[in-house]
Structure formats: C-alpha cells, structure tokens
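Here we describe the complex-level prediction in full. Unlike the single-chain runs in Section 2.1, the two entities below were treated as one system.
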Amino acid sequence: MYRWSQLFIPTLREAPADAEVASHKLLVRAGYIRQLGAGIYSYLFLGQRSFNKIIAIVRQEMDKIGQEFLLPALHPRELWEASGRWSLMGENLFRLRDRKGADLCLGMTEEEVMTEIARKELRSYKQLPQIWYQIAPKFRDEPRPRSGLLRVREFLMKDSYSFDLDEAGLDVSYKKHYDAYRRIFDRCGLKYVVIEAHSGAMGGSESHEFAVLTPAGEDEVVSCDNCHYAANLEKAASKLEPVEDLPPQGDGKPLSVHTPGQKTIEDVARYLGVSPKNKIKTLAYMLDEKDAKGGKVQSRAIVVLLRGDHQLNEAKLASVLGGGEARPMQEEEIQQLFSSPAGFLGPIGVSWAKDLPDGQGPVLLVDKALEGRRNLISGANRQDYHLKNVTPGVDFRPTGYVDLRSVTAGEACPNCGSSLRIDRAVEVGHIFKLGYKYSQSMGTRVLDHNGREVMPIMGCYGIGIERILTAAVEQSHDEQGFWLPLQIAPFQILVTPTNASDPQLLHTAEDVARRLDAAGFEVLLDDRDERPGVKFKDADLVGVPFRVTVGKKVTEGMLEVVDRSTRATQDVTIAAIGEYFEALPLAH
RNA sequence: CGGGGAGUGGCUCAGCCUGGUAGAGCACCUGGUUCGGGACCAGGGGGUCGGAGGUUCAAAUCCUCUCUCCCCGACCA
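The structure predicted for the assembly as a whole is:
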C-alpha cells in the first residue's frame, strides 16, 4: 500500500502549452512523464510503475518462447559497416566519437550485435533454433519527434531475433512471435488489429504489424469490415472497377495532339473530353546509389507510370527499389532524360533499361492498374502536346509491372469486394521475416546435417513499450483524464477518504486499503489533507481504474466504488469490499 | 531541410504595436476558518523577461545574430 502524501505525483491542472495529442497532455498532467528535450522524456513514479507492468507482461510471454539478453546501446562503427547500415541509416543513426577518435553509434535496433554473437558462437545446426530477446533503450535521431511519446528519439523496445536452419524453421519462430504478441497485447488490454505490413528498410519477405486504431496514430490502416483483410496503406491492395478503354483513333498508332496550356491530368482530361482513368500519369524519380561511406556513387533514373487518377505510394516504390531512397527528379534531370518540360512527360521516345545493352539506363516501372490497358493518353515529352493511342507493352516496353499505387477509402476489398476503410493507427509491434540479409552480410554460418556450411535464416521482432502505454491512454480517455487497463495501471485501486483530517474516515480508509493490499491488489491511499474536490479531480486524472470513496456513508457502514471507465458508482459495505474486488474479472 | 508559431516566477498566460520602477490566475510557505467535485480570509517567498551583441539617458518592449520547443510538410521499421 502506498500513501499519496509521501509520494511524488506532480499532477497539473493545465496541460503544457506545447502538448498537442491527448496522451501527451494527460500523461504530463497525471505526473507520469516530463519532457527533457525534443523526443526525450523522463518517466516519473507513476509512469515507471506502468512501464514495469508492461515490461513484466512482455517478459513473461517472451520467456515462453525465447531467452532474455541485455546488449549494449553503444556500438562500434565497424559492426554497422559490416551490415551496410552505417551508410544506409543516414542521419537517423546517432553517431559519436570516443577520445581515441573511433566512431561509435547508439543502437536503433540490434541486428548487428545479435548477429555478431551468432556469428562467433553458433557452429552447428544442433544449436538451432535460437530466439534471443532484450528489453532495452533504442536511439533514433528522428527528423521530427512528435506527439508526446508516440515518436521519440530514445525509447524502450523489446526486440528479438530468431535464428533458424531453414525457412520452415523461420515459419515456426515467426508463428511463435505472432502468438506471443497476441497474448502480450491482449494482456495489456489493448484493442488492436493485426495487419499485413510493408517490410521497409528491414527487407525480408513476410511482415505483420500490430496496430491500435486511433486518430492520434501516424500509420494508415486499410481494413475490410466484411472479411478479415487488414493491411498497412504502404502494402494494401484493392480490386479496381474495370475501366473502358478509349477506341483507337486513326491508324491506332500514337497520335500527337495539341494541348496548349493544359498541364494537370484533370486539365488535359477535360480538354480532350476523357476521364483521368484513361490517362497515364508519369512521375520521374532519381535513385542515388551510395558507397559504404555514404558518398553518392551514381544516380539512376526511375520513371513511374500510374493511372491518371491514382496516387503513387512511395513506400511501395521504395520496396520495389529494394529499400533505396528515390527522390523526385530536378528540373535539369528531367530535361536531360525527356528533353521536355515537366508536365508533359510520357514514356514514348525514351530509351529504357531493357533497350540498353548494359541494362543500366533508366528504369520504367508501370503500375499494375495499367497492365492490359489500351489507347491511353500520355504526355508527348514536348511542350503543349500529348499522345493518344498509347498502349503499354506495344508502344513502349516497361521494365516491369508492379503495384505502386495507394489504395483509397471506398475501393473494393481484394478478398471479398466489400468497401475498404482507412483508419489511423499506432504501431505497437511489428514482426519481420528477415531472411539472410544479416547472416549474409556479417558472415554467419553453421554446419548442417551433412557437414555443409549454411547460413541461418533470421527473423526480427519489435514492441514499443512506450507506445503500449500511449495507445492505452489514447483508446481510453476523456477531458478529465484517462483509465488504464488493470494489468498495466500503476495502481489498481485508489482509496480516497474525502477528509483526511477526520480520524474516523482516515482510519477506515487505511483499514480498507490494508485489506485490499493484503488481498493482492495494488492500492494507492490518497491520505493527503486536501479538499475532496481536489482528490476527485486527481483520481479522475491519474489512470487508476477503480476508486473507493470513503466518505459520509461510512456511518452507515458503506463505501462507494467508482469504475473510472464508465463512472458507474456502486455502494459496497466496508466488510465486503475485499470480496467485491476479488469477484471482478481481472481482464477489464 | 522548407513553411508557420512560441520562449516573461513551478504551470497557464497578459504586458511588446506606441521604450520609462515586471504583472494576473493557479501552485508554493505561515496562521486561521472550511471539508462530497480543483474553498475562503490574512500575511509571505519566488522572475538576470531563452542567450549574445547593438541602438538609446533608459530595452521584456526597437534592431542583428543565435539557441530551444511546438505544429504542417519533407523524411522515416
């Protein structure tokens, strides 16, 4: 049992001026956290208690499938050079130098360190599979930390790594994590969805994200109410309504038309009296390839064709390009490739990679929505002109047809055809099948049954500890405060004598708190000599799911139990208070 | 990195345009009254006005530079 009067719980009547999202305002007001700098937070008593609850759940479930390590946050440069991420991670990686002039970085994830251990220590298939995990700080120099604890520069992550002999083994490790994650988020009382995800810079094949739907989130989740389809917007697909192609004009060969002053897709479509769906949108990007030191080696032109009314999803593009970062072309680069002003670009009259002997020319990626379409209208690479009768595969040869467009709300579900919805969400966990990326780059090998050297196949898996708390606050708050699920609340029951200077009330409250404590509940006794209004306001604020009010009704032998989530109040006799809480289902 | 906003007791903010002895509410300390939804009375403590430089008899206020924080975007497991 803890006595509030002896604790440091600095609640605030007003939210700090620079807080924007609810969880940020409320966690500061409730005395859980304080900000030290942009994306850097201190966790005070209540915050740390809640984190400890979350960590205990994560640890319990992870211990069922893996082994806990604790790895350093400070990593030598050489390790990251070996994996190639010293340059790949760019400015997001915190770098520092020691007194001898050696370069170090602060770990943003720990593939390198884990793989280094595996490389040095694993020798035989008999040692596989392994699942190693840790719960430790991670550092990322985010371009823009924001939204309180949602995007920060130092945070706690449960990260784990699996090493298996083959893909079937990886499937098992992956499934173990999938199931453990479900248990963890269930036990944390989160309402979440599991979605198909884009594997991003981690590379690899399969990936799932665990996301809590809330407007405060930064991810966009596409889901179907009818079936179970759910995917990150960066990955999501949809079924498109068939589009009627235009009839060929003249001899059916590409035909130049004058379109003076018509620059946007909509303008041209209106001017020619067609739908934007019959137009080709041409986007030009540059992929800068870098050497190990991060220096630019060469630039590769990437041209993307989309249906006129579609939007490019840059994450999908990055995925197709193997994690490379493509940037929009500059005016001079466009001139060089197309000999045309931007706004009239098109695929015809440019030499594409397939046409070149060395294959090193510009790459032409065509969205799948254009596959099989005929007689489209594209830019003519000439000021104020467009081309009619443009048919992909006939009039130009794409490097490849790939999925590059963003799904929009209302499009048809790829599984069942129902209307898709898009919601914002916070990513609380993510699991990846990594494949051989690190085993390969860092040279991890074991001997298989036949005595042959093979690379172990890896998976990596992360949970953001802060995000669990933040998401829990986002999903359960009002203007007055928030209420956490019992399992992750810093205290489960707050006992509030309305007047601590009334000896009878205080003694009754102490007795009640002691008995609840003895019954195994975590109890906070608000023994402060404050007016009842102050205590009630604080009680509503600090995230404790239940309050027991010890007040006037004590003379009748009664207490009041308030459920913070519903504000429902129930009178319970002093004698029966222990049984009352014991009868409550723990999963709240 | 581009655009916008803000830095004044612990918190929220006024004062700045038009230079002239730093303010309010809350919080804090002492005493008293009060006690079921952020009480009241009386007394009190606490601020180099983010920092540096400049203009001026005089700068929170005007000028220059700079740092920090927030928001939108770019970016980003």
